């Protein structure tokens, strides 16, 4: 168990680095991406599943509305409390949009940056190679 921005693991010690719904929780995001790149051997692969922040303001508002409704619905059904998943949209408030995130990946030392949209565009699966 370690902090995502400072794992303490040796540099170039991994062939694969992966995470789901973690990048948006890192502070700052750039530090988490730099740490992932540091851990990978040259040519290593990173894969991240993350909520997507649309570039357009209208897309952003729609996604936040859908996430709030989804969270309230599933929170009530599973836990009996509608507010259980309210933290998800809150964690996206300062998360970079898709264009910004792609630039951050490149700045951290990744290439062959690919994005596959999932769940009607609410999530993205990013695959990357370490330079």
Report strand %: 25-35%
- As a whole number of angstroms, the C-alpha radius of gyration is 16 Å
Write out the strand line-up for the largest beta sheet, numbering strands in chain order: 1-2-4-3
Largest sheet: 4 strands, mixed
Shape designation? globular
* Unreliable runs: none
Describe the structure.
The protein has 131 residues and is α+β, with helices and mostly antiparallel strands. It contains four helices and four strands. The protein has helices at 29-39, 57-79, 87-92, 98-107, and strands at 14-20, 40-51, 110-118, 123-130. Strand 1 (14-20), helix 1 and strand 2 form a beta-alpha-beta unit. The longest helix has 23 residues, at 57-79. The protein starts with 13 loop residues before the first strand and ends with a strand. The model has no long low-confidence stretch (mean pLDDT 94).
The gist of it:
The chain is α+β, with helices and mostly antiparallel strands and 131 residues long.
Q: Helices, strands, pairings?
A:
Layout: E1 14-20, H1 29-39, E2 40-51, H2 57-79, H3 87-92, H4 98-107, E3 110-118, E4 123-130
Keywords summarizing the entry:
131 residues, alpha+beta, four-stranded mixed sheet, globular
